Amino acid sequence: MSARPRFSRQEWLFSLKSFFAAMLALYLSSRFGLPRPFWSMMTAYIVAHPLAGHVRSKSLYRLCGTVLGCAATVVLIPSLSGSPLLLSLALALWVGSCLYLSLMERSARSYAFMLGGYSAALIGFPLVDAPAAMFDIAVARTEEIAIGIVCASLVHSIVLPASLAPSLVGLIDRTLGDVRRWAGDLMSPGADDEVRKRLAQDRRRIATDITQLRLLATHVPFDTGGLRWTRHAVGDLHDGLAALTPSLSALEDRLAALRDATRGVPDPVARAVAQGSACLDADAPAGALESVRAAARAESADRRNSSWVRALNIDVAAHVDELVAGWLRCNALRADIAAGLAGHAPPPKRGEASRPSVLHVDRGLALRSAFTVVLSTCTACAAWIFSGWRAGSSMAMAAAVFCSFFATMDDPVPGMHKFLVALLWSMPVSAFYILGVMPLAHDFGMLVLCIAPLFLVVGGYLARPASSLTALGMFFGVAGTLALHDIASADWVSFLEGNLALFAGALIAARVTAIVRSVSSEWSARRIHRATWRDLSGMAARPKRALARDAFAGRMLDRIALLVPRTAGGAADQGSEAVQLAMRELRIGASIGVLQQHRHLLPETPVRELLAALERAFLAQATESLTRLDALLPQIDRLLALCLASTGCEPAVSALVGLRSDLFPSAPSDLQP
What is the pLDDT of residues 169-221, one digit of tens each? Predict the structure, then answer.
């Protein structure tokens, strides 16, 4: 665990609240006469979290998942108990299906699907020999888990509750500050290595923070303070920050193109960008946006410039306009959140209802994870059936639970091995408690005194992210043994068999995962890029999909946040190049969205042919086919020249400039109509 032995005040508080909730759940389950009260104690620890909102959301979804798993158990076990092989396959397929749904739902709701899967394994496998008692045992397990959930929710919500508001508001303010600093850095000299490094850090941090904000926002409705009344503003602010990012990235790229084309940013453009950057200050005047629009369009209307420079100026003007308008909206939403936290009535929703954000999901990897848990569970069941081992049910349970716990990692094996080591260390502690201490505890008070030293210390380590995995392994080793064994009749033989079966099931899960499921970070990064090209191809083919560009921006920022840790261990520039590539893909998607939105301003045949060519080219990139994009450049140039010769086509010009700059960054600056 952690090398630092002393716990902070918050860690002690979390440990004390968790222990009190667990003891309350244990006491109530015992008084109600439930058969395995230690299930309630274990549940109270599993749903514990330093933030009360997390506890409440986790409790709700755990209860839903438990009911779902119990229902599946009641249906499957009695009807298939006469065929052990078929029953094993059915339970394994159930666990795999629930794990797949869990991986496809990257929010707090995913917990319900995961619990629905391995709850069926935890309840069903020990009762395959007693199908007649299945309904009663399933109801008892649900009651035990529900008591643990209720006790944890009450204690963490009433006793000095920790609100999500400081963490969420701090993250929002940090992201707004990063956006402001990125905008301020845009006009810095392009050859300054320090500025380039700072811009790269800004991009990575903003992408990570916006994704973290999206995940934290799912817990806002469960918060104990006034933050829950601001959930619409929090969601809209996330969407607004996601929409700002492609504008900032495109503005950075176009200013660099202007420097190359004119050997420096023209003074009117520099003044427009500087005014736009000033509008991002908190004390900006109310009419600042209109003055920025006028300054940005002044240079774009100058016919003395070349066609390409004029097009770049139009694009810069459009992105400065988007940036300032989006920033003012984000500031208004931040003020709404502050008003909600102060206890004021929630303001009316600003603008139209936004579509729910969709984070990146890898269906192929999710199917692979589901197949791994099915194969691991079936392997453990086969070893149990053919060996006739009476403790084999614990082996099947461990295989299902282990594969589910670590399914979100690229390579789950190191985490599994770390957990296995913690389980091994927990075995002598479990033996001491279940065989030496528990038989001597003749009343509830003595029982609390006996287990308090261990669980208070483990609870403190659970509050530390660096040691939480090892502490969780120690906790599951001890608490799981208490929950799965009958304390009154436990002996050395049953204890050793049960713990060896748990260890064997975990080992089976680790070995099957190493063979079937483990992938490298580079492999995952390539799949993320291919998924982006498929999205771009779909945006070029379907106008409705392209118009949801804010949702695409949120998904792309999530992909950038996923790419950052996967490229951090490579070469020095590998992570920066991966983020730059993802930012380029984000800008391409934004350009396609604008082009689809304003295609009615353009001649129908050329724009339809260009979009069809983009669809084919992006799909080829997704399949990693050897294809060249050079044929797209003349089409873009012809359409761009037509737009420059017309009036009222500025949005289309901006979109076409974006496509040309991002697809062909080294193309000559002279347009060939």
Answer: 888 998 888 888 887 777 655 445 666 666 677 777 887 888 788 878 888 88
Handedness of CA 587, 592, 598, 599 (dihedral sign): positive
CA distance 356 to 345: 24
Mean pLDDT of 360-380: 94
Q: Which burial class, exposed, middle or buried, applies to 571 when counting CB atoms under 10 A from its CB (0-12, 13-18, 19+)? A: exposed
Residue type, 140: A
Buried/exposed code over 641-656 (b: 16+ C-beta within 10 A; e: otherwise): bbbbeeeebbbbbbbb
Token pair listed for 203? 């991009």
Residue 529 clears pLDDT 80, i.e. is over it: yes
Q: Which two tokens stand for residue 428?
A: 């002598």
Q: 206, 165 in Cβ contact below 8 A?
A: no
DSSP per-residue string spanning 587-616: HHHHHHHHHHHTGGGS-HHHHHHHHHHHHH
| Residue bearing tokens 């609870």 | 459
Report which residue type is found at 630: D
Q: Where are the alpha helices (DSSP H) in 410-491?
A: 413-431, 444-462, 468-484
**Mean pLDDT, residues 77-96:** 88
d(CA 309, CA 250): 15
| pLDDT at 666 > cutoff 70 | yes
Residue type at 231? R
Contact residues for 373 (Cβ-Cβ < 8 A; gap 6+): 92, 95, 96, 99, 117, 399, 400, 403, 404, 407, 509
| Residues whose CB falls within 8 Å of the CB of residue 502, separated by 6 or more in sequence, listed in order | 394, 395, 397, 398, 423, 480
